[in-house]
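Why do we care about 3D structure at all? Because function follows from shape, and shape follows, mostly, from sequence. That is the central idea of this module. The next example makes it concrete: a single protein chain, its amino acid sequence, and then its structure expressed as tokens.
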Amino acid sequence: QVQLVESGGGLVRAGGSLRLACAAPESFVASNVIGWFRQAPGKEREFVAAMLWSSTLYADSLKGRFTISKDNSKNTVYLQMNSLKPEDTAVYFCAAGASLRRDSQGYTYWGQGTQVTVSS
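And the structure:
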């Protein structure tokens, strides 16, 4: 079983920034897809971004505000979120899969999630 642990969530005012982190097992980040999803209350889980090696994939609506990156030496994938809006409020999950894709079915392992709340 692969354990993914998210951190960095919290309460931020609209227009602010947060950086989420997803810690993975040693050497896992370097060779597997790590993606970020989010789920707001009463809504379906939504793809945010994913990364494999140096390739990235973003939700079209979030590209430009959100940036995914990783540090292989720390086995951690980051999600930098800028210009946050109240509609970005959700639980953010990281997930691991085998191919770079937007659908959640392509991801096998999931973290527990971290809450992001953006106040107006």
